[in-house]
Amino acid sequence: MARSKSSKRWLNEHVSDPYVKQAQVDGYRSRASYKLIEILDKDQLLPRQGAVLDLGSAPGGWSQVVAARLQAKGKIIASDILPMDSIADVHFIQGDFTEQAVYDEIITALDGNQVDLVMSDMAPNLSGIDATDQAASMYLVELALDMARNTLKPGGGFLAKVFQGEGYEAYVKDLRSSFDKVLIRKPKASRPRSREVYLVGKGFRP
To answer: Which positions ≥6 away from 46 have C-beta within 8 Å?
Structure first.
């Protein structure tokens, strides 16, 4: 099947992307690892020890970074509808966390504890229809925020990828209702033409 012009452009960008090449050198599963590294360094979201929930974790680039930094001094629960190869010190749960059985499995894995950080790099399968894709992406980050409100300890942190567009401003306002500080980050590894930004919530208020 012939590739579209947009898919050819993406493939060419991906192959020549310096972060893709660096990820191969550093052993990271995803170029997204560098987005997380920059944000963690800037905003000090990660506790020295504690619990982290990684939503939309596959292929595991973010969990890799967190596991390396916590060095078995905390608990990392990762979840995705897609499979993910195992990572030392990461408890992976495959499935849709909005389904009761998967949600219950995550809560059981937390063993009655709340988490210090909820992070989400989730994105929908794109249809190519902007309005549909934007609605789907906003739905996912709303689900991530709901999960954060159910699992975060007071003062905890939140990090989520969000695409600017319809619903974005309302989401930022909603985020501010639950966190002392909300920051907007555009990491260097995020492609300039992408509408993605990362929202950081600090100081969770139950």
So the answer is: 40, 52, 66, 69, 70, 116, 117
Domains of the chain: 5-204 (3.40.50.150)
Q: Token pair of 104, please?
A: 């219950």
The reply, when asked if residue 50 is annotated as ligand binding, is no
- Alpha-carbon gap, residue 141 to 55, rounded angstroms: 10
Edge to edge, the sheet with strand 51-55 lists: 90-94, 75-80, 51-55, 115-120, 152-163, 196-204, 179-185
- What tens digit of pLDDT does each residue of 161-204 get? 999 999 999 999 999 999 999 999 999 988 888 889 999 999 99
pLDDT of residue 12: 52
Rounded average pLDDT over 57-70: 95
Q: How far, CA to CA in Å, does 57 sit from each of 37, 86, 91, 180?
A: 15, 11, 11, 26
Please answer whether residues 93 and 79 qualify as being in contact, where contact means their C-beta atoms are separated by less than 8 angstroms: yes
What distances in angstroms separate CA 14 from CA 19, 104, 179, one per listed residue? 9, 37, 35
128 is known to lie in a ligand binding site:
no
59 upstream amide cis, omega within 30 of 0:
yes
Rounded to 10°, the helix 18-26/32-43 angle is 80
62 known member of a binding site? yes
Distance in Å from the first CA to the final CA of the chain: 51
Please list the active-site residues: 161
